[in-house]
C-alpha cells in the first residue's frame, strides 16, 4: 500500500540515536534528498503531553527528530551509523494549535540548505484524528506532498485517515557532524 | 524555597530567584537522574534543548503567577531561539534562567506588527485563547556563558491565578 511507512516503530531506532522516553517520531513515510515526511501518534504517556495536549517543546522536538530521521536515513542507505545532531536554532516556529492525545501528527520536512555540518530545515506539522471530520475547515495547507489529497470539500486529507489541520510550522537549524563515506569504490 | 515539579518529572529544581529591573533571574539545578537522559542519549547525557525551553516557560509562568496574570502559558510563536552551548547536568550543575515579559494591552491581540501576520498567530484561532499575550525574552546562562537565548510570543491559558500555586518567593 502506498501509505506504508519506510520505517516505523522500533525500526526507527536504526535511524536515530534517541531512545525512550524521548523518541518523538514513529514513522518515516517518504524520503528524498530534499526532504522527508514523518509521523507521530500523540500518546498519553508522552513526556511533553500536559493536560491532554502536546505542548510546544514536544512539537519542536518532533520536528528536530524528523530532521534526525532524515539525516539518519541518508546515513543508513550509505551504510553509515547515524550521527547525533543538535538543534542550533529554532526560527519563526508558529503553533496554530496544540494537538490532543489520540491525534496523529504528519510532518512535511524540507531541507533548505546545508554547509559545514549545519542544515536548515522548514517543517509543517499537521494533525488529524482517524475518521474525524469535526475540525474547522482551515485554509489550504501549503506544500503538502503526494500522500495528501484534496477531498471534495477542499480540506486536505490523508487517505483513510480523516481531515488534517495545521498544527505548527517553522524553521530549524540542526548541527550534525558530516560523515565521510569511507567505503572504497 | 520550595522545589517545583514542572511538566518534566524530576528535571530540575528552583533554588532561588531575584528580580532586577524587568528581569527575573532563577537559579536552578539540573537533576542527572532524570529519566530523559536514558534516551538522550544512552551513555552520553545531553540536556535536550526543548527541555531548556520548557524551563524558560515554567519560570515565565512563575512570573505570571506572581504578577497575578494567570498560571499557565502557551506558546504562539518561537520567533527565534538560539542554542549556543551544550548543557548537561554534569557540565552545568547550576544554571541561571533569566526571563522578562512585555505584556500587550489588548487581550488576544497579535503582537509585533499591525497586520498580525508576522507575529505568528491570528486572534481567535485558538479556542482556549482569551488571555493576555506577551513577548517573552529569556536566556539561560552557565558560569557566564550564554547557552540559550529566546524570543517568543506567549499567551495566558488559564485565568485567574490561584494563591496556592505561587510557590517561589522573591527578594525585592
Topology of this structure?
The complex is a heterodimer of chains A (185) and B (172).
Chain A: E1 7-8, E2 27-32, E3 35-41, E4 49-50, E5 53-54, H1 56-77, E6 85-95, E7 104-115, E8 118-128, E9 149-150, E10 156-157, E11 164-176
Antiparallel strand pairs in A: 1-2, 2-3, 3-7, 4-5, 6-11, 7-8, 8-11, 9-10
Chain B: E1 12-20, E2 23-30, H1 49-67, E3 73-83, E4 94-103, E5 133-142, E6 145-156
Antiparallel strand pairs in B: 1-2, 2-4, 3-6, 4-5, 5-6
Describe this structure in words.
The complex is a heterodimer of chains A (185) and B (172). Chain A has one helix at residues 56-77; strands at residues 7-8, 27-32, 35-41, 49-50, 53-54, 85-95, 104-115, 118-128, 149-150, 156-157, 164-176. Chain A has 185 residues and is mainly beta. Chain A starts with 6 loop residues before the first strand and ends in a 9-residue tail after the last strand. By secondary structure, chain B is mainly β. Chain B has one domain: Thiol Ester Dehydrase, Chain A. Chain B is 11% helix and 35% strand. Chain B has 1 helix and 6 strands. Chain B has one helix at residues 49-67; strands at 12-20, 23-30, 73-83, 94-103, 133-142, 145-156. A 6-stranded antiparallel β-sheet of chain B has the order 1-2-4-5-6-3, covered by helices on one side. Classes of the chains: A mainly beta (185), B mainly beta (172). At the A-B interface, helix 1 and strand 6 of A face helix 1 and strand 3 of B.
Concise account of the structure shown:
The complex is a heterodimer of chains A (185) and B (172). Chain A is built from 1 helix and 11 strands.
Portion of residues in beta strands of chain A equals 35-45%
Q: Any idea how many domains of chain B?
A: 1
Unreliable stretches of chain B (pLDDT < 50, length at least 5) are: 109-128, 160-172
Number-wise, the strands of chain A total: 11
The largest sheet of chain A, given as strand count, sense and whether it forms a barrel, is: 7 strands, antiparallel
Tally of domains of chain A: 1
